[in-house]
Amino acid sequence: MQDPVDRSRRRFILQTGVGLFAAASMPAWVRAMEMHGMPKLAPNRASPDFKPDVEFELVAGLGSVPILPGSPTRVQHYTAKLISGPKDTLTEMPSCHLGPIIRVQKGQKVRIHFRNELMEPTITHWHGLHVPALMDGHPMYIIDPGETFVYEFEVINRASLNIYHPHPHEITARQVYYGLAGGLIVNDEEEAKLELPSGEYEIPIVLQDRRFNAQNQLIYGPHMHDRMMGFYGDRILVNGRPNAEFDVASRAYRLRFLNGSNARIYKLGWSDGTPLTVIGVDGGLLESPETFPYVMLAPGERLDVWADFSGRPKGSELTMRSLPFSGVLPMMAEHMTRRGGRGGMGGGMMGGMGMMGAMDLPVGSDYPLFKIRVTREAGESPVLPSRLSKIDRYTLSDVANPNKPVPIAISESPMAMLLNGRPYAFNDIQPFERIPIDTVQLLEIFHTRGHGMGHGMGGMGHGMRGRMMGMMGGGNDGESRQDGQGMGGGMGMMFSMAHPIHLHGDQFQVISRSVSGARADAYATVKDGLISSGLKDTVLVMPGETVRLIKPFHHFKGVFMYHCHNLEHEDMGMMRDFLVE
Predict the structure, then answer these.
(1) pLDDT on residue 484
(2) Are 525 and 326 a contacting pair, CB within 8 Å?
(3) DSSP codes, 245-293
(4) CB neighbours of 9 closer than 8 A, spacing ≥ 6?
């Protein structure tokens, strides 16, 4: 049996990143087993020194649930059992493949015994939570069937809606698609004082798109074009159910949206044109309510909406729709999916696009998500607070690198979706991806064809820029055209598409958005629904867009991922690591 001291030492070496550059020369007990180049470590065990306030078991396993009329659908799903702690820690979602809603309080110490009862490796990531690197669900910590990984952490996030989902390398998309996902709500005293709608007046809304065969079984088998665009379904599920309807009273509700789709982006808007009153995003409440004509919601993003049905008569109905928009897919793919996906290029590069679920439910088309029915009158309704929360904001004077932002460069081609010009590989930390602990950093996300490759690229070097631009069709000097017209005129935009970029660890602030070389008409259909307020962990970056962020790297050393949350792109390797040291 492996000595426990050796196990701890091995985990420390890989978790803290001390051995990232020397792993190849380490003895076999450090490198251990590997899966797709990822080290396989011994599962973490419970610490006798950790005294949890909340403790529960979480299991990833196989099951079947009724989703469509007729035969039940086979799924992978999370189940949970409370060991100790408040009774409302776990709330099952009835007749649903989604995991239970986990509710914790800021300041609580949480222990989770995560057991794998699948037929393949997995690990769980706490999307949105700021936890130690060992507890973050990095793919290096995958566990095999029958194994248990023990998470132990203190909740330091402010009140917010977060996600738990798998994060094994190269199979995340499939596991999420087959059902492994759930919501995790953090509560705190600041939010409690507002007395926002709660209980039956707080409605979780998890949006997913799926495809089913004639036997009601999920279809997931991405072809090359599905992987490049993302895998789209032709049926919308809300909280795991089709054709969702909610019966409400004539009063205010809190709608808590979570985009749990693999790739689909939604443009949320009420059918009667009523504006959306947004009170929170990924990282919790905004400072004050904000009103939008519609809101864009990309995979991995969350949204908190104040929906007041006061004054609506009993029997009235209202539909939440995804409204029409364009520009999130490459121009040719968007055109072909709207035409039905056939013709034109036949069996060529974009041929077969009609096999995408987007053919029957085109991305950016107009379709219903769920219906609200006012079934009873309410005597009183809470009043929307004019002030919601206090956010400790950073400015450029707080960042350690005001003139040299950390780059996150998006590049797209027929065979690769990349960040910073490199496919994901463990033990591949670049100099600019090494971040000093307890610093605040300026980051810049940009598309390589619409932005100078040298801008903010730090240690990538001229040779790397040249290779990336050679792949992308840029000039011999390694610099891209500012008009986004590399690869010869309009061909430069052929593969450009929107990407939801997710950063693990501390929440960040979006400080600016700018557009160069994008399709102005397309961008106009989404720009008024892009929220830059509040704290975020996932941001939608449109073609030709540059987004600047301020992100703290506090509390925890170790390896933290950043990646595209189009899950097919993530599995293709559109993912990198920061080493906080």
Answers:
(1) 35
(2) yes
(3) EEEEESSEEEEEEEE--SS--EEEEETT-PPEEEEEETTEEEEEEEEES
(4) none
Domain 396-580: what homologous superfamily?
Cupredoxins -  blue copper proteins (2.60.40.420)
**For the ranges 222-226, 331-335, 515-519, which has the lowest average pLDDT?**
331-335
pLDDT tens profile 92-109:
988 899 999 999 999 999
pLDDT tens per residue, range 389-429 = 999 999 999 999 999 999 999 998 877 899 999 999 988 99
Residue with tokens 């009158």: 377
CA distance 455 to 405: 9
Containing 161, the helix (H) or strand (E) segment is strand 160-166
CA distance 372 to 442: 42
Helix (H) or strand (E) holding 191: helix 189-192
Q: What is the pTM of this model?
A: 0.87
496, 543 contact by CB (below 8 A): yes
Asked whether the beta carbons of 552 and 496 are under 8 A apart, the reply is: no
| Residues 6+ away with beta carbon under 8 Å from 73 | 64, 65, 66, 67, 97, 212, 216, 217, 218
Alpha-carbon distance 186 to 322, whole Å? 28
Higher pLDDT, 153 or 40: 153
| Cα(248)–Cα(4) distance, integer angstroms | 55
Q: And the tokens for 527? A: 């720009």
d(CA 400, CA 507): 17
Domain ranges of the chain: 32-189, 199-376, 396-580
Whether 573 shows a pLDDT value over 70: the answer reads yes
| Mean pLDDT, all residues of the chain | 85
Whether CATH 2.60.40.420 fits 199-376: yes
Q: Say if CB 77 and CB 22 are below 8 A apart.
A: no
Contact 322, 267 (CB under 8 A): yes
CATH architecture of 32-189: Sandwich (2.60)
Give DSSP secondary structure letters for 57-98.
EEEEEEEEE--SSSSPEEEEEEEEEEEES-GGGEE--TT-SS
Query: Both tokens of residue 91?
Result: 């709330």
Q: Are 30 and 14 in contact (CB under 8 A)?
A: yes
Helix (H) or strand (E) holding 165: strand 160-166
pLDDT band at 330 (very low <50, low <70, confident <90, very high): confident
